[in-house]
Predict the 3D structure of the following.
Amino acid sequence: MARTAIRPVDGALPTPSPESQTATPLLAIEDVTIGYQTGNGYLTAVDTVSFTLSAGERLVLLGPSGCGKSTLLRAIGGFLKPASGRILLNGQAISRPGPDRMTVFQEFDQLLPWRTVLGNVRFALERGKGLSRQDAEPIARDWINRVGLERFADAFPHTLSGGMKQRVAIARAFALQPTLLLMDEPFAALDALTRRRMQDELLALCEETGHTALFVTHGIDEAVRVGTRILAFTPHPGRLAASFEVPAAARVRGTPAFAALEDYIQRTVFANPEVGND
Ligand code: ADP
Ligand code: MG
């Protein structure tokens, strides 16, 4: 499929912005291409993608299924190696996973089933930060409280709802104070009402802590709600099509600014019926 054309800009709306180049970006993705060897030959999942992420930003990778969002996030997490290009965290090439990049996945089964809520968060602190059980416990309890699960600290994952499991995964990720929070559609499998509440809660936590986050979603509304900047991707192969700044005023659901930005992204990037057909 040809690269999606960006339509002319409507006067008052934000324009797709060129990638900002700061001197020392927290994360630099430089001409990254990633592919998979499949039964049908080599498949390019991410095609020559470049962008940077500065400290304190919440960058959203937005696009339909198959545009390489998870592949890119896995490479940033250190689980996959690019075929070409470089991924630099604070100027250093990423070569393996580490507690400086904590990932929250979509799947509800990312917790250790034989450990309680407290055990899951505490264990991550012990392993990831080298803390003693004694030192890890109050930090774990604090984060469990901050995601509203104080009454469930001793519960096992199988007794929790999907939303509660995702809260534990979020508490665990924040507890390690990573340089970069990676979130791969963490709310996609939740019901719509829970999803909205979780978006709001995540936004509040990020704003309170100032954490830098890279958030993947296929929902334009979710991207506008949680992001400070949005990178829109198109599939087959996964390419970066446009970048949008999200002004704080557009982050408030139900406002004309929110609806206008959502609509604008839809029209400029995803109006082509070929985009979104996996
Ligand atoms: P997204 O997260 O945007 O839905 P993915 O990164 O999961 O996209 O996938 C991008 C492309 O790479 C898709 O065409 C997908 O089928 C393919 N792909 C993903 N993972 C693998 C894999 N392990 N082996 C082969 N192909 C894969
Ligand atoms: Mg994915």
In short: The longest helix spans residues 192-209. The chain is about 30% helix and 25% strand. Strands lie at 27-38, 41-53, 58-62, 84-89, 92-93, 101-104, 180-184, 213-217, 229-234, 239-245. Confidence is low (pLDDT under 50) at residues 1-12.
